Amino acid sequence: MEGSSPMLDAEAVADLVLLDPLTEESLVQTLQERFRRHDIYTYIGNVVISVNPYQALPLYTPEKVEEYHNCSFFAVKPHIYAIADDAYRSLRDRDSDQCILITGESGAGKTEASKLVMSYMAAVSSKGEEVNKVKEQLLQSNPVLEAFGNAKTVRNDNSSRFGKYMDIEFDFKGEPLGGVISNYLLEKSRIVRHVKGERNFHIFYQLLAGASPQLLQQLKLRQDCGHYGYLDRESSSLPGVDDAANFHAMQDAMRVIGFSPDEVTELLEVTAVVLKLGNIQLSSSFQANGMEACSITEPQELREICELIRLDPSMLEQALCTRTVKARDETVLTSLTVPQGYYGRDALAKNIYSRLFDWLVNRINTSIQVKSDEQRKVMGVLDIYGFEIFQDNGFEQFIINYCNEKLQQIFILMTLKEEQEEYVREGIQWTPVEFFDNSIICNLIENSTSGILALLDEECLRPGVVNEDTFLTKLNQLLAKHKHYESKETQNARYITDTSLPARCFRIHHYAGKVTYNVTGFIEKNNDLLFRDLSQAMWAAQHALLRSLFPEGDPQKASLKLPPTAGFQFKSSVAMLMKNLYSKNPNYIRCIKPNDTKSAMVFTPELVLAQVRYLGLMENVRVRRAGYAFRQLYGPFLQRYKMLNRRTWPRWDGGDREGTEVLLAGLAFPAEELAFGHTKIFIRSPRTLFDLERQRQERVSELATLIQKMFRGWRCRTQYQLMRKSQILISAWFRGHRQKNQYKQMKRSALVLQAYARGWKSRRLLRELKSQCRRHAAATTISAHWRGYQVTGPRALRPPLSCCPCRCVRAVCLSAHPVQRYLLGLAKNLPPLSVTDRTWPPAPYRFLDKTNQELKNIFYHWKVGAGGDGENSSWDLGAPAHLRGLWWHQIPPPSAVQEVPGSAAPVAPGPAAGQALCQRALQGQEDPLPQKVPGQGAGGAGELRAAVADGLVPSLQQPFHGDYLGLKQNPKYQKLHAVAKDKLVMADTVRKVNRANGKTVPRLLLLTTEHLVLADPKAAQPKTVLSISDIRGVSVTRFSDGFLALHLKEVSTVGAKGDFLLVSDHLIELVTRLHQTFEATSGQALPLHITDRFSTHFPKGDVSITVVESPKAGTDGPVCKKKGSNKMEVLVH
């Protein structure tokens, strides 16, 4: 607490729990005495009572922030900083989400309290460039929202006319990361009318007072507030408030939050439009049929509005003066009367401003919301309108007071009812305190069947004549016996005379007192209707921001469904708010207004006593006096304070309750200060808790010193061991280096000696070899001369020359004749030049078998190289070399050939080979397959024709058809035929490979003289249309897989989407025709790459394609698998 003397002074006690005697008079007297001493904050346990002083006090200096930072809640004087610090430390240290509920009447200082809480958290959290930026954005959201959402009322010069709940999100270190703002029920009716002596929203006065002449001219505004019908001329200026300075502060806040200059300009333009709508005047006239109509009296304002939003003035004039009514299939344009026209004008102004405010909140959330996905802790701050009792209370006061009833219900449940229920659950004996439960009032308003809001929605949707009288009649019928509801009719039924209750009114007995509501305008404000013509006119404007505020104005999205009512929306928002608040640990700031005149340091006891009663402060004090100030589960309590007892530190192996009892037994606290429940420990006095926390801090300091000592010792030992290990390592390396140098020196010496020895031996050996060579040469010369002498000496008889030659000539003549006959006969009986013809004359003699086979192979190779005879038109050997290379690569390698049982001929595996074999067998051919499948090497063209004849390359064996879809015959593809306006070259079904996962989907491919079209086969709708000039190149593999990569130019429109991966059963025909079309269009050959590894360009980056031969591949085509973000494997069989 703040010390002993004020605690014992009953006139100025800091915690009302210690007040003696406890009466309403003593409680108010204590608040008054503290208020006189400028002590505007008082405690009720951990609840802070704040009395608005209506003047600036020196209580919020940086020194005060430092005084309350990391200080115990009860160790200092009561202050709003104390509860903010307690909530912040609970969130940071205990990992518990918090919320601070600031409640009270309008003018009690709730908005200032919320700003003080946020500024304190910004001051005590960590520093850093990014953290400071987040804190500054969170703080600067207040001036912007106050400018657009606050206004002067008879009770408050800066009254929040909307409810605001901000979730501030922190990381695990307690640093703010961002936040999210929720707004509730902006009082948009203030735009068009407000009570005398009040003002419209601050932004209008700030704009006219602070904008430069150039900006006012751009917005087509005057600086005179009296010129505008929506502004109260008598209350245009506010004493002590500088609207111009506030406007500049609001602009600076927008820049800090992150608004661009264009966004600020558009925001002010829409604000100016709302202001100028109030100056549109209507006049009455009569049509030829006698029906009343209205028209614009002065079109100048209308033209200026349309210039701002870039809209045709005639369209806006028609939307303001007429209304389109749809009856069944007919659309009727009816003229509006002058009252109806003014209603439409005001409804448009209210809707524009309300939606603009929602957009503003969402735009601020975009800047301050947390971008990362890390775990976050949340601190909620609720600043919402207080309880309102005016002379004339309407729909807005009804909704506002309903919200305050729900907040009071939270306070009752969490601080009174749950307090008692928890003691009962835990088995703690204490005296129950009676309190008023306002659930019956909440049910009266929000019950889904018989609640006032449900009956109001039902009356708004009921067909026929609907007005407030029928609504009031229904309330009187259903709620006549409710003890918290009364009206003139219910009083008459009870024979009660009350002149203070008018006829068109009903009264609800709220927790804060009785409030009389006038039902006039309830149905209109609950419906909140805007004519569809006005929505469509706003959507037709070329102003980007204004157009985005009216999405329902799009004629293509027009809906006849009625929007939800204002009451239903607010009820849903309050339900979500209550759910959010129930999920957090609450902290309460109860604000009290000391007087009705907003005078500085004036205290009215009667007014304060009324607020003390409906805030339930007496019941709260009684509960705190009868109960315990602190409670916590045994496990967390033992974990936090176990270091205070040697028996529980550092580890307790028993149960949590037993450990807590042992822990507290060693601290010698009085028995009446403690109570042990079933699951929690209860501490009665805050002083006991403070003493416990002080001992813990002292013990933590001791443990921190011990940890530092142990760490320093470990660090020194580790450093010594590291130095010793380094010294040993250096010594070892040095000794090794010295030995290596000695070894190298010895090795160099040995090599020099060896070199000299080898040189001497080599020279001696060379001399010996030269001597031997000379001797050998001499002996050879002598031997030669001796043999020559023997030959040229006496002549020897020579054999006749006719013996051997005759035998040779005869053998040549006998063998030349059959070879000549064979070659001449072969020239006359050559097989046909068709590439599919495998016939060849047999060899007449066995010694010519090998020659015959070689000639057969040469002939086949020649046929492929020279070109076909035109019989097989499915491929062209006159095509460019890169296409012939493509056909050659489609031949399977020799390893792919296998023997067919029962046949001497091998066959390539696969479905195509099997199909060819079955066809030949059905035709009665004895030997449907060739003798062998050629391999890679010279003569590839002949091997290709042989492979074609064997069915090893299906796409080469098939003749070119061009149109495989039958576009002209199939009516389903008529629209595709219409898309291909130029000449059709080829139409086929292909499979497109998905770039993300490698799966294939069927597509229809149309190749024309100028375009390539990919279409959906089910809907027959084009998916992609490519120009032939957009194609950069084509990549295929060396396998018979039908896989094709279509590379597009990146500068093209379609090329931005990336390349295409296709699988075709007619690959050769597709590539051939694509080459011919590309060459005819561009005059250049189509770039074709035959490779097993290539790169493709996709929107998210380049992807490397690798073709792998694998048994996992299917027989019906390649299988594509994505390997990471930039790799893909294509498995082929």
Overview of this protein structure:
The protein has 1133 residues and is an alpha+beta fold. 46% of the residues lie in helices and 16% in strands. Strand 24 and strand 25 form a beta hairpin. The longest helix is centred in the middle third of the chain and has 107 residues, at 686-792. Residues 1-10, 795-815, 866-879 and 891-953 have low confidence and may be disordered.
C-alpha end-to-end distance: 84 Å
Supply the number of helical segments: 35
Helix content range: 40-55%
Poorly predicted runs of 5 or more residues:
1-10, 795-815, 866-879, 891-953
Mean pLDDT: 82
In total, how many beta strands? 33
Short synopsis of the structure:
The protein is built from 35 helices and 33 strands. It has about 1150 residues and is an alpha+beta fold. Helix 6 (about 130-150) packs across helix 9 (about 245-255), helix 12 packs antiparallel against helix 20 and helix 25 packs across helix 26 (about 655-665).
Strand-helix topology:
Elements: H1 4-8, H2 24-36, E1 41-44, E2 47-51, H3 62-68, H4 80-93, E3 98-104, H5 110-124, H6 129-149, E4 150-151, E5 159-160, E6 163-170, E7 176-184, H7 202-210, H8 213-219, H9 243-257, H10 261-277, E8 282-286, E9 292-296, H11 299-309, H12 313-321, E10 322-327, E11 330-335, H13 338-368, E12 377-383, H14 395-426, H15 439-446, H16 452-461, H17 468-478, E13 485-487, H18 488-493, E14 505-510, E15 513-518, H19 522-527, H20 532-540, H21 544-548, H22 566-582, E16 585-592, H23 605-614, H24 617-626, E17 630-633, H25 634-641, H26 656-665, E18 674-676, E19 680-683, H27 686-792, H28 803-828, H29 849-866, H30 881-889, E20 898-899, E21 906-907, H31 911-922, H32 940-949, H33 954-957, H34 974-979, E22 984-993, E23 1000-1008, E24 1011-1016, E25 1021-1027, E26 1031-1036, E27 1043-1048, E28 1060-1063, H35 1067-1082, E29 1088-1090, E30 1093-1098, E31 1101-1109, E32 1119-1122, E33 1127-1132
Parallel strand pairs: 2-16, 3-12, 3-16, 26-29, 31-33
Antiparallel strand pairs: 1-2, 4-5, 6-7, 6-12, 8-9, 10-11, 13-14, 14-15, 17-19, 18-19, 20-21, 22-23, 22-28, 23-24, 24-25, 26-27, 27-28, 30-31, 32-33
Helix pairs in contact: 2-23, 4-5, 5-6, 6-9, 6-13, 7-9, 10-11, 10-13, 12-20, 14-15, 14-22, 16-17, 25-26, 29-32
